[in-house]
Amino acid sequence: MTPERFDIYDDQQHWIGTALRSEVHANGYWHRSFHCWIVRDEGEQRRVLFQRRREIKDTFPGCYDITAAGHLTAGEQLQDASRELEEELGVNAPFNALTYLLTATQQLQGEVRGVPFVDREFSAVYGLCLNQPLEAYVLQPSEVDSLYEVPLDDLLALFRNEIDVIQATGVQTPSGESERIVREIRAKEFVPHGTVYYTDVLEALYHVPKD
Fold first, then answer.
1. Which of 23, 154, 170, 172 is the most buried (most CB within 10 A)?
2. What b/e string do you get for 16-44 counting C-beta neighbours within 10 Å, with b at 16 or more?
């Protein structure tokens, strides 16, 4: 498999070249990513979906995160990056079905299995209302450990520090068949995108058009 290359930028989003994924995270080069949060409506209640990252990931393994997300590879445009929905969740949604929410500038860092990383991203964030059950999603084994949903009100309250824990219903497919799970989840267990990121995105998800 050919190693992934990303377009890299200065802090003003001016393109300066390309670099291997490993170099981008080792050297903290700015690059672009695509985020998509999925919601569904159950009566008058809007629910939001999020995933748990596989333990083998090279950044933030085992953390809870955006419903589907990914880096833009060299030469790729946002319209192409929506492939992440199909790759990670089996969702075939055209790019024009997504609702643009905001663009986030993020600088994250950490260490995984003794290897430090610096992840600097310009992230275009989108929302999608998709009224299907968790069992209808096809999880990508190499990326997604499990998929969860909670009332949008509850997740927003968690990141506003109004509550300490949420109870989430989820599915995982360890043997190829979906198994229902219930877990108590705290804010510190999510990828540390920052409180402002989470609250701004979650508030914007109330305005994503109904499916």
1. 170
2. eebbeeeebbeebbbbbbbbbbbbbeeee
Kindly report the number of other CB atoms within 10 A of residue 138's CB atom.
15
pLDDT tens-digit profile of 27-50? 999 999 999 999 999 999 999 999
Q: How many residues does the chain have?
A: 211
pLDDT band at 1 (very low <50, low <70, confident <90, very high): low
Instruction: Please choose, from the candidates 107, 109, 132, 118, the residue with its C-alpha nearest in 3D space to the C-alpha of residue 196.
Output: 107
Listed residue (150, 93, 131, 134) closest to 211, CA to CA: 131
Would you state the structure tokens that stand for residue 153, as one six-digit string? 């009100």
Asked if 70 contacts 121 with a C-beta cutoff of 8 angstroms, the reply is no
Smallest Cα–Cα separation from 50: which of 59, 62, 34, 37?
A: 37
Using a 10 angstrom Cβ sphere, with 0-12 exposed, 13-18 middle and 19 or more buried, the burial of residue 118 is middle
> Bridge-partner residues for 1, per DSSP?
none
